[in-house]
């Protein structure tokens, strides 16, 4: 008799789980797992690789891939057994970005930052362990082979925008994000050590902006400052970039740090007065 409440709780838990399943479409969830199997590092996968990454059997992966091919979200790679994401997937992300208050407020501010020295200005948000560019004004940098566009992802540990955002988070969150993916040496100056990165983030927090000395792209200096919500949580980062052959790091920082911090503060105020920010940052 004494264990009846426990049995009732177990039954209630199962009932809750069953109710949750009744209210969701499992096949749709599996379809999204298939889409999420593709990455920038491995954009082309076989059916078996998709099945393994999406944690499903080959037959299910086969049916879902065929459905996604028919709807245009996945394409077959010619003369291979591989698949890759179709451009239709980008439409979903760009439609969401286009409605963001952040993007609307950012463009005039970014345009004001691009000039003779600064050849690009960008806004990036944190998604997992990556920074996604959601807005960018670029007047040059083609000679450096830099082709960063809206929707591009870069590892947060290697970028000034990533450092600007991470510096405003708690240290346990910083560690969790930094350890969630391999930290590869992208250039000769890319910081990869955990202790080194944590010390860098503390420095960024103290001075209010981040500096990148060619740490993501060789030949490119970057300054970035965080964009905050009303609670002081970093929502995004704003950056300016200049080619290293056109200036030196000390002069670039001296000339641009105040401007990038003030621009980020202005964008923070604009978003806060407008009721917030529509992008939801994911750290999973």
- The helical percent reads 40-55%
- Terminal CA distance: 43 Å
Mass-distribution shape = elongated
The overall pLDDT, averaged over residues, is: 83
Structural class: alpha+beta
How does the major sheet shape up? 6 strands, antiparallel
User: If classified by CATH, what would the architecture of the largest domain be?
Assistant: 2-Layer Sandwich
How many domain units? Answer: 2
Strand order of the largest sheet: 6-5-4-9-8-7
Q: Regions with pLDDT < 50 over 5+ consecutive residues?
A: 1-12, 276-284
CATH homologous superfamily designation of the largest domain? GAF domain
- Structure summary, number of beta strands: 9
- Strand/helix succession: HHEHHEEHHEEEHHHEEEH
**Portion in beta strands:** 15-25%
**CATH domain class name of the largest domain:** Alpha Beta
- CATH fold name of the largest domain: Beta-Lactamase
Radius of gyration: 22 Å
Q: How many helices?
A: 10
What does this 3D model show about the protein?
This protein has ten helices and nine strands. It has 284 residues and is an alpha+beta fold. It folds into two domains: 26-86, Winged helix-like DNA-binding domain superfamily/Winged helix DNA-binding domain (Arc Repressor Mutant, subunit A, Orthogonal Bundle); 91-273, 2-Layer Sandwich (Beta-Lactamase), CATH 3.30.450.40. The strands form two sheets. The protein has a six-stranded antiparallel β-sheet with strand order 6-5-4-9-8-7. Strands 1-3-2 form a three-stranded antiparallel β-sheet. Strand 7 (210-213) and strand 8 form a beta hairpin. Helix 2 packs across helix 4 (58-71) and helix 6 packs antiparallel against helix 10 (249-273). The longest helix has 25 residues, at 249-273. The relative contact order is 0.11. Residues 1-12 and 276-284 have low confidence and may be disordered.
């Amino acid at each position: 008799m004494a264990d009846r409440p426990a049995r009732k709780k177990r039954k209630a838990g199962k009932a809750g789980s069953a109710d949750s399943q009744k209210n969701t479409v499992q096949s749709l969830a599996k379809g999204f797992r298939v889409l999420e199997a593709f990455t920038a590092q491995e954009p082309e996968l076989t059916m078996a690789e998709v099945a393994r990454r999406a944690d499903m059997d080959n037959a299910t992966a086969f049916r879902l891939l065929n459905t996604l091919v028919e709807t245009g979200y996945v394409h077959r790679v010619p003369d291979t057994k591989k698949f890759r994401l179709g451009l239709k997937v980008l439409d979903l992300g760009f439609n969401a970005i286009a409605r963001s208050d952040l993007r609307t407020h950012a463009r005039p501010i970014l345009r004001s930052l691009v000039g003779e020295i600064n050849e690009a200005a960008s806004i990036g948000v944190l998604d997992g362990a990556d920074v996604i560019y959601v807005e960018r004004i670029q007047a040059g940098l083609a000679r450096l082979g830099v082709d960063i566009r809206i929707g591009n992802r870069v590892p947060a540990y290697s970028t000034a925008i990533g450092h600007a955002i991470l510096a405003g988070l708690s240290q346990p969150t910083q560690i969790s994000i930094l350890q969630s993916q391999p930290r590869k040496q992208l250039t000769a100056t890319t910081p990869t050590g955990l202790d080194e990165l944590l010390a860098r983030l503390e420095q960024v927090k103290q001075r209010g902006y981040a500096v990148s000395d060619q740490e993501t792209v060789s030949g490119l200096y970057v300054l970035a400052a965080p964009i905050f919500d009303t609670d002081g949580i970093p929502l995004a980062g704003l950056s300016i970039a200049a080619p290293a052959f056109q200036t030196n790091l000390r002069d670039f920082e001296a000339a641009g740090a105040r401007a990038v911090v003030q621009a980020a503060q202005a964008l923070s105020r604009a978003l806060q007065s407008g009721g917030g920010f529509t992008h939801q940052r994911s750290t999973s």
